[in-house]
Write a structure and sequence with these properties.
CATH topology: Thrombin, subunit H
Number of strands: 6
CATH superfamily: predicted glycosyltransferase like domains
Shape: globular
Low-confidence stretches: none
Radius of gyration: 13 Å
Mean pLDDT: 87
Distance between the termini: 34 Å
Number of domains: 1
Number of helices: 2
CATH class: Mainly Beta
Strand order of the largest sheet: 1-2-3-6-5-4
Order of helices and strands: HEEEEEEH
């Protein structure tokens, strides 16, 4: 099972369309009447992977809130869980990014790369 999870994660990494930037931060994730705190290690304008022991199922619609740094304003957006691995986490694709949030993310990623 562990090998299958690693292969799935590697396949998802290879399919990435957007540049990523390192970002270790907590992300408030709301869906299905639950509100969880997950952790991400990187972000792109397309989405992020959230480390979560009890991730939401694939195809779940989620609301996300996070900061790019402790002094930055809270960013909020909607997303869809693209894949979910119990005990590991979930890949979330952003589906509802305002122009302002997209621009803020792009500037952050450009500055990090």
């Amino acid at each position: 099972m562990e090998l299958e999870n690693q292969e799935l994660l590697q396949a998802e990494i290879e399919k990435r369309k957007h540049r990523r930037a390192k970002l270790i931060t907590q992300v408030k994730c709301q869906a299905m009447g639950r509100e969880d705190l997950a952790v991400t290690r990187d972000v792109s304008v397309g989405g992020m992977f959230l480390t979560e022991k009890d991730p939401f199922p694939a195809n779940s619609t989620v609301k996300l809130a996070f900061r790019l740094s402790p002094t930055e304003p809270l960013l909020t957006c909607g997303g869809q869980v693209v894949y979910s691995i119990q005990g590991v986490g979930m890949g979330v694709m952003f589906t509802d990014l305002s122009d302002e949030v997209r621009e803020t993310l792009q500037k952050f990623i450009d500055a990090a790369n």
